[in-house]
Amino acid sequence: MNITTVLVANRGEIAGRVFRTARSMGMRCVAVYVDADADSPFVADADEAVRLTGGYLDGAEIIAAALATGAEAVHPGYGFLAENADFAAAVEAAGLVWVGPSPEVIGTMGDKLAAKGAAVEAGVPTLPSSDDPADDSQVGYPLLVKAVAGGGGKGMHVVDSPDGLVEAVASARREATRAFGDDRVFLERYMPRSRHIEIQVLGDSHGNLVHLGERECSIQRRHQKIIEESPSTAVDRDLRAAMGDAALRLARGIGYRSAGTVEFLVDDETREFFFLEVNTRLQVEHPVTEEVTGIDLVREQLRIAAGEPLGYGQDDITFTGHAIEARLYAEDPSAGFLPATGTLVAFDPADSPAVRWDSGVEAGSHVGVDFDPMLAKVIAHGPTRTEAAGCLALALERLHTGGVTTNRHFLAATLRHDAFLSGATTTDFIERHAPSPGPALGDDDLDRAAVVAAMWLQGRNRADAGVLGGLRSGWRNARLPDQQVSLSHGDRVIDVSYRSERDGTFTVNDSGRARVHRWSPTHIDVEVDGRRTVGRVTSAGALLLVQTPRGTIEFGVVPRFVLPGVEEPTGGLTAPMPGVVLDVRVAVGDVVTAGQTLVVLEAMKMEHHMDAPFDGTVSEVLVVAGQQVDNGAVLMMIEPADAGTAAGEREARG
Question: Could you give all domains of the chain from N- to C-terminal order, each with its CATH number?
Answer without folding.
Answer: 5-99 (3.40.50.20), 128-189 (3.30.1490.20), 194-433 (3.30.470.20), 443-557 (3.30.700.30), 572-640 (2.40.50.100)
